[in-house]
Specification:
This protein is an alpha/beta fold. Helices cover 35% and strands 22% of the residues. Keywords: ATP-binding, Glycolysis, Kinase, Magnesium, Metal-binding, Nucleotide-binding, Pyruvate, Transferase. It catalyses: pyruvate + ATP = phosphoenolpyruvate + ADP + H(+).
Length: 475
């Protein structure tokens, strides 16, 4: 990691902390990704979320059918028209996710120091003694002493609804585990995570491909969030698949890093992907707790220097049930911005949380405060130094544009682009003002027919353009 200086402007006057923040047209440069679900899918709530600062709507296909998500998306389109706020669409794949199958949906009580059997036989009933799972090769993947975590999907951090297991014995296809803490599994969908054990399942599953080729194509999605990305090849395969589908050629692929395999291959994944999502929920299980911050800082720095968006997840879990974040969570959001992250992704907090609008509002306010003291000058010098000389023509133009805009205190930077590349490079240098990209389509003719190309798809379809870095908008 190459980060010697704190990206914080000094000195901060204590008196300024007590002064109320002034409202601004752009509440925060840092983007907020909100996951739409049961508590946040009505036109009214989505409209409030957009006004509060949500600029990307995430549709998570780990639960809910395409019809449910289509209904949410139609409501999003209505809300966009009503509020005149742009919002991009992100499709989140299921990926190689291991799940506990509880067909009866009855609560399952697990007692510490007791034993439970994980079985691939999904016909068995889920009880306190046995839990059927959707993966037949678990017995081949684990060994005695391995740690397994079972938690509610979009886990909120409550120990009463999640359980740690230790593998004690492998009996044929069954895995016998010791329960480390008492817990009650009281929902139908629980995910299972084996610490630092490779799972031999494809990253882009058949179910994912079906959703992308139908729902994704139909709605011309802006982003594909590729769950459990483990190698650059995963990203390449996903891009090839999108290219085959025609109208998703310009859909950006954000690689979601959530296990040790993804961490090991991070540099090569970053080269292939359009952006990175640091899925701290699963990463926090795969890594020792004291190592998570190191990965975040190193990964965000690498994304910054590559000029690709870094998205951080799992920052205000407690707001799923509470109106205010904890002090630690509020500090965590600010530190993520000071580290250089470009977007905050909200999961359970907006999907099924009690306060989706308040969560977006609070996170936006914290981001805005952190941005005010962000040391842009130090960052700019570091980014220019990292690129080195000779610079490419485009790097030289975009970095100079940012420097000039800051020196003359410009209100906004307007970038004319056909691919969006110039706008993304401008945003790489983190100007203190918004970047508005005006897309000029490229028109070609072979004397028989005209073709138009350029990064303009998705406009007026509930999309709203893509974000190149944290202050890139599309018009």
């Amino acid at each position: 990691m190459h980060s010697n200086h704190l990206l914080l402007e000094e000195p901060i006057r204590m008196a300024s902390i007590l002064q109320p923040s002034k409202p601004s047209f752009f509440p925060a440069m840092t983007k907020i990704v909100g996951t739409l679900g049961p508590k946040s899918r009505s036109v009214e709530v989505i409209s409030s979320c957009l006004k509060a600062g949500m600029s990307v709507a995430r549709f998570d296909f780990s639960w809910g059918d395409p019809q449910f998500h289509q209904g949410s998306l139609e409501n999003l389109k209505t809300a966009i028209k009503g509020t005149k706020k742009l919002c991009a669409v992100m499709l989140d794949t299921v990926g190689p996710e291991l799940q506990v199958v509880n067909k009866s949906k009855h609560p399952i009580s697990l007692q510490a120091d007791s034993f439970v059997v994980l079985t691939p036989d999904q016909q068995r009933e889920a009880t306190s003694d046995q839990l059927p799972i959707n993966f037949s090769d678990l017995s081949k993947a684990v060994k005695t002493g391995d740690t397994i975590f079972i938690g509610q999907y979009l886990f909120t951090g409550k120990e009463t609804t999640s359980v740690w297991l230790e593998v004690k014995e492998v009996k044929g296809e069954d895995v016998v585990c010791l329960i480390k803490n008492s817990a009650t599994l009281d929902e139908s969908l629980y995910t299972l995570h084996v610490s630092q054990i490779p799972i031999d399942l494809p990253t882009l599953t058949d179910k994912d491909k079906e959703v992308i080729s139908t729902w994704g194509v139909q709605n011309n999605v802006d982003f594909l969030s590729l769950s459990s990305t483990r190698s650059a090849e995963d990203v390449r395969r996903a891009r090839e698949y999108l290219s085959e589908l025609g109208n998703l050629k310009e859909t950006q692929i954000f690689a979601k890093i959530e296990n040790v395999e993804g961490l090991k291959h991070f540099d090569e994944i970053l080269q292939e992907a359009d952006g990175i999502i640091l899925a701290r929920g699963n990463l926090g299980i795969d890594l020792p707790a004291e190592k998570v911050f190191l990965f975040q800082k190193a990964a965000v720095y690498k994304c910054n220097m590559a000029g690709k968006p870094a998205v951080v997840t799992r920052v205000v879990d407690s707001m799923t049930d509470n109106l205010r974040p904890t002090r630690a969570e509020a500090t965590d959001v600010a530190n993520a911005v000071l580290d250089g992250c470009d977007a905050i992704l909200l999961g359970a907090e907006t999907l099924r949380g009690l306060y989706p609008v308040e969560t977006i509002s609070v996170v936006g306010k914290i981001c805005a405060e952190a941005e005010k003291v962000y040391n842009q000058d130090l960052y700019f010098k570091r980014a220019v130094k990292y690129v080195g000389e000779p610079m490419t023509y485009l790097e030289a133009i975009t970095s100079s544009a940012v420097r000039a805009a800051i020196k003359v205190k410009a209100s906004v930077i307007i970038c004319f682009t056909s691919s969006g590349r110039a706008a993304r490079l401008i945003a790489k240098y983190r100007p203190t003002m918004p970047v508005i990209s005006v897309v000029i389509p490229q028109i070609k003719s072979n004397q028989i027919r005209w073709t138009v190309s350029g990064a303009f798809q998705g406009q007026g379809k509930g999309g709203g353009g893509r974000f190149g870095r944290r202050n890139l908008l599309s018009t």
